[in-house]
Structure formats: structure tokens, C-alpha cells
Amino acid sequence: MREFTIGKNDAGQRLDRFIAKNLPLLPPALLQKYIRLKRVKVNGKGSKRDVRLAAGDVLQLYINDEFFDKPSEENMFLTVFQPRLEIIYEDENLLLVDKRPGMVVHADETEKVNTLINHIQAYLYQKKEWNPKQEHAFAPALCNRIDRNTGGIVIAAKNAEALRTINEKIKSHELEKSYLCVTVGRPRPAEGRVEGFLLKDEAKKQVSFYRRPIPGGKSAITLYQTLETRGELSLVECRLLTGRTHQIRVSMAELGCPLLGDGKYGNGTVNKRYHETRQALYSYRLGFAFSTDATPLNYLRGRVFTVEKVPFREKYFPRL
């Protein structure tokens, strides 16, 4: 237990804001919980979070000692932000997380802190499943990536063996990933295969589609099936046989049916009409189709995980 006596310079502050300022390592949600549980007392009594402190008030904080430390590189995962994760599945080896559109998976030139991997590492640190002080090299890591404006299932490995195994299974195509998307137009035929070669312009961060091999181009194969059409929009399921940058976006545009909201390969006029600024694309289903040994993850063989609530499906193709 620690005590604080409020001086005249701190008088008038809200209780929760005073504590947050003085204990920067204490996650906001945990602070509110401690106040509700009366582990924070003012003059010996439990108090509401918005009470205004007066000079001479004595705070008694029944809070773990580590939250009184000063922020440092070693303890940054205690706080900075409260982890926000939509967990689909978790065990001792991995996490399956539903990444919502708008969040980057790793730090880039636009975002350094609010990244998916930081949220995952903070979550595991706070659960005491990972401590960077006790690890020489390994840190929880993502096994696959999704574009900032695309949503869906991301796999995070909790240990080096799980990371190695999942990476091997991705390379040998023993994971089945299915995507939902909304296209502008009706794909012809309604079900089929788009096969070609993709060449990425690194400067423009844009990909071009070619029907024939081209120097530097990578083969790309996408299977698709139209699930429903309403007006000019179609709900389409895609499955990747290869995993290339912007593969579905470029392939559907090649069919003449670009994704709704796609600013690079789509129809700007239609996007504005629907007020969509992000591509309607979601990695909504993941299957562990292991055909070879997957130790230590063999228990996942044959399991399939699905995101139930895909925002644009609910919006444009609500199920009865």
C-alpha cells in the first residue's frame, strides 16, 4: 500500500486523473477497476472516480508495486495503452486475432505505437505469459500480415516453435485462407479462377496485373465465387492459392469488378457515392489443413475458424 497526501498544487484534480498522472504504468481500465473495487481510498474510504481532491486529503492505494515504477524500455508493455484485441482463438502456442480495418499490423512511417503487434505483446505481457527481460531474442510475432484497410484473421505465435511451424505451413500452402469482398459489378463467370502475374512498383506501392510472364512478375492464382448480388454490388468469396501483395484487389479489378472502396484499383465515382474510403475486403475464414506433421500444433489439424461479423457484409448484404 502507498499513500499520497494532496498538496495545494494538486487540489481540485479528479481522483482518477491524479492517479493516472502519477502512475503512468497503470492501464486506464485497470485503474477504473481498482477504484470500483475500493482499492483506492480517500481519507480511508472508497470514492468515486470523478471526486475532486482537496488539499490535505490522504490517498491510500492498494495497487501492485510495479505500477509505481517509472516508464522505461523494459516496462513499456505494462501500459501506454490498454490492449484492444478481438480474440477468435487462443491457446498456449498462438493467438488468432480479428484485426479491424484501419489498424496497421507493424509500425510504419505513419504509426509507431497503435499497432496490432504492440497490442498483442502488451496483452501477453500483462497476462504474464511473456516478459522481454527473460527472453534473449524471441518476442511474440505475427505469422501473416494484412493491409491497414483490410480486416480479418491474423495469426500470432507465442513461442519460437509455433512461429517456425506456422511459417513452414504457410510456405507449403497447408493453411487455407478465405476472403469476403464486395465488388462493383457482377463477376463473369459467377465462379472461376483468375491467374496471371503481378508486378509491384515499389515507388508507387501499386501492383500491375499481366496475363503472361513478365520480368520481376510473380505468379498469382485466385479462386472466386459470387455469393450474392444486389443492384450493382456483389458479395464474393475469394481463396488464395498464392499470397501476393494486393492480389485479390488487382485480380478482381482485372475481371472488371473492382472492390468497393478501393482507392488504388477501384471506381472513385462509385466509392464516393457509397461514402467508402477502405476496400471492402476481409480475411474471414482460416483453416488448418495440415497434410504433414505440424508438431507442436497437430491438435489444430482440420480446425476452421471464422469471423462472424464482417462489417460490409452486415451493411450491404444483411442476412435474414
From TrEMBL:
E.C. code: 5.4.99.-
Keywords: Isomerase, RNA-binding
Entries under InterPro entries matching the protein: PsdUridine_synth_cat_dom_sf, PsdUridine_synth_RluC/D, PsdUridine_synth_RsuA/RluA, RluA_PseudoU_synthase, S4_RNA-bd_sf
GO biological process, one term: enzyme-directed rRNA pseudouridine synthesis
Segments forming a coiled coil: none
GO-annotated molecular function: catalytic activity, acting on RNA; pseudouridine synthase activity; RNA binding
SUPFAM superfamilies the UniProt entry points to: Alpha-L RNA-binding motif, Pseudouridine synthase
Pfam families found in the cross-reference section: PseudoU_synth_2
Catalytic activity: a uridine in RNA = a pseudouridine in RNA
Keyword Cytoplasm: no
Keyword Isomerase: yes
Superkingdom as given in the UniProt entry: Bacteria
Family: Belongs to the pseudouridine synthase RluA family.
Stated name of the protein: Pseudouridine synthase
Gene transcribed to yield this protein: rluC
